[in-house]
């Protein structure tokens, strides 16, 4: 600890805006309160103090940000650009303090002002710029990129309204507008000078350019301006501070009153409003049809701005266009940014006059694609009329890419028309559609899945033909999560215990957690481990009381499932088990039952009726079970509203049991599973996504496995799955469905849950009925294991001990080595500032 900045003595000489000592921080906070918030201490609100502190922290990042940019330009460093329609970055203040290493000094500085750091941290709004796992992954990767000193830029959309806030009324989800920017965002730096134009609609005209070459001109119907909004992303205890660059849409015309008569003036205002609509709102995923056209427009908008920005930076570095793949790489996070393939071609061919073949070589060497789903309904395709109407030039380019690509396929597989039809970028069965996953695959030099099983299934199913044609293109990079946010920040008492036991290197070398295994049986260490978990459970219990009014017992087994609500994630399987326990208690009130507190959390897409019904069911069960004297507190059911990163901070560390129960083959990786594991939860789970690798790391004896494997799921479906057979064969399951259908959990209403119960009985696309018995049996093993406190604690310790693989640092190193060919660049602070 001796050389830590946190212990530096305050000196009067420290500059107020960059000094890391207590006194410099205190002065900057007070200065900001007066100069930026226009308040004096006696009348300042907590929010004023939050802003003053946030700006003080931001000041310290700016010296690092400037040095970072300066070094990258001077050193000709290759930059990793992470293209993602979502970045679920979570609250920034606490994380930035930790990464800068000034949390303790900030706390002390605030104490001298009579303020509490934790209270100010709790004020920050969640920037909900993502739906769930995919957006959070992008945020974890930014943290690791900066921490590993990799030159990087995150590129995305600055949504004015992020994912909706979830409220629960009468047991139902209600969506409320997310006004995260209402009180201002201290982290954002607007860059009006970094702006690009993006065209939409209209038509194209072909002709010859002044050198006699064929050329195409796009005459758009309208143009939108994208302006850069930057959020600094500091690495952990390094000087690197990269940027998350989000694009905000604006009208192109600065509308000048003199140019318009009254009618035109309102027309001009209308156009301005339309342009600004583009980056207004994040669309929930799993949404059947809503907002299709605007969503494609958003994707093209952010991708075009980002590619234009990369070309600008390339020129700034004094590099010729051919050097683009040597100086930049762009990783496409799912197909949302896959229009980049066609847009980079357009920029190179139409705007820079490169020959097609050269442009294609540059494009493929620059881009790489990460697939995130095998679910057919989630694979993006766009109807041709919509695409043609919005992006006519891009469609022409896609046709040209496709024609050349299909020639290559024909050469490899002469006469195989079925293969040609399968691989085409255009789906011609039925109404024609553009297949974005095919475009992304064809336009990339590397394609990866996000867990071993997922990458394997990707090569065997959705992209099989492509894997056969280009076997060398395919990779696996198993996801990871940042231990800075999900251990240090979320679970400070566990972090202290780890510091004390293992030394302080573990947050950047998570394999060091292995050193815990030799303490797993130590009674004194176990006692401390349990005390940490117990305190975290008390914290969650208090939050549950505040959010829902439900009182839970922190000594019960905390069994937690938090994630987006989706049928494939099977929150209803968990709910059915609770009902079966409840039924057993009603039959035999004296039953010896392991007391459990079931916690659920997660948002359902507003148009996904079945997911919303699952929320209603969980709340219906909670209403009945929590107050039934027969249950007598032995079971508690909680639906924690508005699950987001901010809430995640106190939910993951409080879990004894992590529910990872998706139908095998459906969850690409999962990352929630990793956060639970790091925080010492045991997993009950299927052989799906990264669960498989978690079980491999921790050992089968420390993991509760159940259910069909992915191969078995496919076989059952092939052979004709009849869920009713499973219901008829299992009396307890039959009764569980009956009591739900009887209106017992819906205040006597026998209609509400019909769609859910009928779906399970007669269709059950995610094999809930097939896995039910196996799940219940495993849950019984969990209850038995819980009763042996020492054995359970040992398993809990071992879960944390063997979670090192799941650091996002490991994942980013793999991207750097296997896909990007990028290395670290040290930032010295004396470069500037
Ligand atoms: C980690 C995380 C997720 C992803 O959870 P899964 O269990 O992997 O689906 C979703 N939402 C938030 C807020 C998260 O932090």
Brief digest:
It contains 32 helices and 22 strands. By secondary structure, it is an alpha/beta fold. Pyridoxal-5'-phosphate (PLP) binds next to helix 6, helix 23 and helix 24.
Features:
833 residues; alpha/beta; Rossmann fold; 3 domains; nine-stranded mixed beta sheet; six-stranded parallel beta sheet; 32 helices; 22 strands; globular; binds pyridoxal-5'-phosphate
Structure overview:
The protein has 3 domains: 1-75 and 99-123, no CATH class; 78-91 and 126-479 and 816-820, Rossmann fold (3-Layer(aba) Sandwich); 483-806, 3-Layer(aba) Sandwich (Rossmann fold). The two termini are 26 Å apart. Strand 21 (682-685), helix 25 and strand 22 form a beta-alpha-beta unit. It is globular, with a radius of gyration of 28 Å. With 833 residues, it is of the alpha/beta class. 47% of the residues lie in helices and 15% in strands. It has 32 helices and 22 strands. The strands form 5 sheets. It has a 9-stranded mixed sheet with strand order 5-8-9-2-1-10-11-15-16, with helices on both faces. The model is unreliable at 1-10 (pLDDT under 50). The protein binds pyridoxal-5'-phosphate. Pyridoxal-5'-phosphate binds next to helix 6, helix 23 and helix 24. It catalyses: [(1->4)-alpha-D-glucosyl](n) + phosphate = [(1->4)-alpha-D-glucosyl](n-1) + alpha-D-glucose 1-phosphate. Keywords: Carbohydrate metabolism, Glycogen metabolism, Glycosyltransferase, Pyridoxal phosphate, Transferase.
């Amino acid at each position: 600890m001796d050389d830590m900045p946190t212990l530096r003595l305050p000196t009067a000489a420290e500059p107020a805006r960059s000094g890391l000592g207590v006194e410099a921080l205190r002065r900057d906070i007070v200065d900001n309160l007066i100069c930026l918030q226009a308040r004096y201490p006696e009348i300042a609100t907590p929010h004023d103090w939050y802003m003053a502190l946030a700006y003080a922290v931001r000041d310290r990042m700016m010296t690092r940000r400037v040095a970072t940019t300066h070094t990258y330009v001077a050193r000709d460093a290759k930059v990793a650009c992470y293209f993602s329609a979502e970045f679920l970055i979570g609250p920034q203040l606490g994380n930035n303090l930790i990464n800068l290493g000034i949390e303790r000094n900030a706390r002390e500085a605030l104490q001298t002002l009579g303020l509490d750091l934790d209270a100010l941290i709790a004020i920050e709004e969640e920037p909900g710029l993502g739906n769930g796992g995919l957006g959070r992954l992008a945020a974890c990767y930014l943290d690791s990129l900066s921490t590993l000193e990799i030159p990087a830029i995150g590129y995305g959309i600055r949504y004015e309204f992020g994912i909706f806030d979830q409220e629960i009324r009468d047991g139902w989800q209600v969506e409320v507008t997310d006004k995260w920017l209402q009180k201002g965002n201290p982290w954002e730096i607007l860059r009006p000078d970094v702006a690009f134009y993006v065209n939409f609609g209209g038509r194209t005209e072909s002709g010859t350019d002044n050198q006699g070459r064929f050329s195409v001109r796009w005459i758009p119907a309208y143009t939108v301006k994208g302006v850069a909004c930057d959020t600094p992303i500091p690495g952990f205890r390094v000087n690197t501070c990269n940027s998350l660059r989000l694009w905000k849409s604006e009208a192109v015309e600065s509308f000048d009153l003199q140019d318009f008569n009254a009618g035109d003036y309102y027309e001009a205002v209308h156009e301005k409003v339309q342009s600004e609509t583009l980056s207004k709102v994040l669309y929930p995923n799993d949404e059947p049809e809503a907002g299709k056209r605007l969503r494609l427009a958003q994707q093209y908008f952010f991708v075009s701005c980002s590619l234009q920005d990369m070309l600008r930076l390339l020129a700034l570095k004094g590099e010729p266009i051919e050097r683009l793949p040597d100086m930049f790489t762009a990783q496409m996070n799912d197909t949302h940014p896959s229009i980049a393939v066609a847009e980079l071609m357009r920029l190179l061919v139409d705007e820079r006059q490169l020959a097609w073949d050269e442009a294609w070589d540059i494009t493929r060497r620059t881009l790489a694609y990460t697939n995130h789903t095998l679910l057919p309904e989630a694979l993006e395709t766009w109807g041709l009329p919509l695409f043609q109407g919005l992006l006519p030039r891009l469609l022409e380019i896609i046709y040209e890419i496709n024609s050349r690509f299909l020639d290559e396929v024909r050469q490899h597989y002469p006469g195989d028309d079925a293969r040609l039809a399968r691989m085409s970028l255009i789906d011609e069965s039925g109404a024609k559609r553009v297949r974005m996953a095919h475009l992304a695959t064809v336009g990339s030099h590397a394609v990866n899945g996000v867990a071993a099983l997922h990458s394997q299934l990707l090569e065997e199913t959705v992209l099989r033909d492509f894997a056969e044609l280009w076997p060398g293109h395919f990779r696996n990079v198993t996801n990871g999560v940042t231990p800075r946010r999900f251990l240090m920040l979320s679970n400070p008492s566990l972090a202290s215990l780890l510091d004390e036991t293992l030394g302080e290197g573990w947050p950047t070398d998570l394999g060091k957690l292995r050193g815990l295994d030799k303490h797993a049986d130590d009674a004194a260490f176990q006692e401390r481990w349990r005390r940490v978990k117990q305190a975290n459970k008390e914290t969650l219990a208090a939050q549950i009381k505040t959010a829902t009014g439900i009182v839970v017992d922190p000594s019960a087994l905390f069994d937690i499932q938090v994630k987006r609500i989706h049928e494939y994630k099977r929150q209803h399987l968990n709910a059915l088990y609770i009902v079966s326990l409840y039924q057993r208690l009603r039959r035999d009130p004296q039953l010896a039952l392991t007391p459990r507190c079931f916690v659920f959390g997660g948002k359902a897409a507003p148009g996904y009726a079945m997911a919303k019904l699952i929320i209603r069911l969980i709340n219906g069960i909670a209403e009945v079970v929590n107050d039934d004297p027969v249950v007598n507190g032995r079971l508690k059911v909680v639906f924690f509203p508005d699950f987001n990163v901010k809430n995640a901070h106190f939910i993951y560390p409080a879990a004894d049991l992590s529910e990872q129960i998706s139908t095998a083959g459906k969850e690409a990786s999962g990352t929630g599973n990793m956060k639970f594991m790091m925080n010492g939860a045991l997993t009950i789970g299927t052989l799906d996504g990264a669960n498989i690798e978690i079980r491999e790391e921790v050992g089968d004896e420390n993991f509760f496995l159940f259910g069909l494997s992915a191969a078995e799921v496919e076989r059952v479906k092939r052979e004709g799955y009849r869920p009713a057979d499973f219901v008829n064969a299992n009396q307890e399951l039959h009764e569980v469905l009956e009591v739900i259908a009887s209106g017992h959990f819906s205040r006597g209403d026998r209609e509400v849950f019909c769609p859910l119960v009928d779906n399970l009985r007669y269709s059950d696309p995610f094999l809930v009925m097939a896995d039910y018995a196996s799940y219940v049996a495993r849950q019984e093993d969990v209850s038995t294991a819980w009763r042996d406190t020492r054995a359970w604690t040992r398993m809990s310790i071992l879960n944390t001990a063997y979670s090192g693989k799941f650091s996002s640092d490991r994942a980013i190193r793999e991207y750097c080595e296997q896909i990007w060919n990028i290395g670290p660049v040290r930032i010295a602070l004396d470069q500037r500032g």
